[in-house]
Amino acid sequence: MLINNKNMFNEISTGASKSTVDPRDIQDLSLFSPLTGDYDIYTHIDMLNVEHQKKVGACTAALKSYIEYLYFLKTGKYVRLSMAFLYIVTKIYIDKNYIEGSSLRSAINASMKYGVCTEDTMPSNFELTHEQFLSQRIPDNAWNEALGYRIGGYVSIPIEQSLIVAALDKYKLLYVRYEVGEEWYTSITGVITWAKELILPLRSPKKVISGHAVILNRAKLGNKVENHGRNTWSRLWGNNGDFYTFYENYKPTEAWAVTLESQMPLVKPAGPVIQEKDWRKLLELLRFLKLIK
């Protein structure tokens, strides 16, 4: 969805539709974590390139940054992958339409089946219109190269505070969708704050206008746990392309973890999700029994 506002510093686009329910999805119900503890500030922030998608609704292709991070952890080598390749393959071969934006699961499916080639092989030209962007030809050598950067598995994370916390402890990064309001573009005072910090922390929008995909990690601010997201709206937006929000103020509508391996560790088939209040009762019981601190 493109926001048209002549007063804006620049026009930018979102484009993350809500993923539909798929019975093949697996939820990680092995997650268990108390809501206390010390959390390190994210140390690999420079490994996630901050792109500027401009008028192209390619935010779901931010998944490529997650894959870059996983590849770096596995090999110790950093490679920059192509948002253009991932988004075009997602639209043409998974969604099979030219409508702006996609779901997060579509991008996951594309990266599992086709992978992602490098930025050098297929540069991401965000000066194009959305139609022009999707009309680009994928280089012949991109297909084989992309197979070297495929994800092997994925898991859905229940949207409960304690489980999001546990998932970020376990996987370090999550691929999430947020609902977007005008607050992402302007401050609550109505003053354009494209490159200012007044938009932070992000809050649940009063009026939802779209959805947006980002890569999420976690840090500790004082005594409060905060979620940090890497956005695709350039380093001029927010805090050098970064944003933060507290879970109680703003929670994602869906969250996914991915791996380069063919199996996600310690997961169970999707089923009823334990509610946060029940997790808290269980935590209290375990502490009473002195099984945890």
Structure description:
It is a single chain. With 293 residues, the chain is of the alpha+beta class. It has seven helices and eight strands; from the N terminus they run βααβαααβαβββββα. The strands form two sheets. It has a six-stranded antiparallel sheet, with helices on both faces. A two-stranded parallel ribbon has the order 1-2. A hairpin with a 2-residue loop joins strand 5 (210-221) and strand 6. Helix 2 (83-95) packs across helix 3. It is globular and about 60 Å long. The termini are far apart. Mean pLDDT is 76; it is low at 1-11, 34-46, 187-195 and 266-274.
Work out the helicity level: 10-25%
> Please, how many domains?
1
Order of helices and strands: EHHEHHHEHEEEEEH
Mean pLDDT: 76
How many helix segments? 7
- At the fourth level of CATH, the homologous superfamily is Cysteine proteinases
CATH class: Alpha Beta
Outline, from the CA principal axes? Answer: globular
Known CATH architecture: Alpha-Beta Complex
The whole-angstrom Rg is 19 Å
> What is the beta-strand fraction?
15-25%
The strand count comes to 8
User: End-to-end span in angstroms?
Assistant: 47 Å
Structural class: alpha+beta
Strand order, sheet with most strands: 3-8-4-5-6-7
By CATH, the topology is: Cathepsin B, Chain A
Low-confidence stretches: 1-11, 34-46, 187-195, 266-274
Main beta sheet: 6 strands, antiparallel
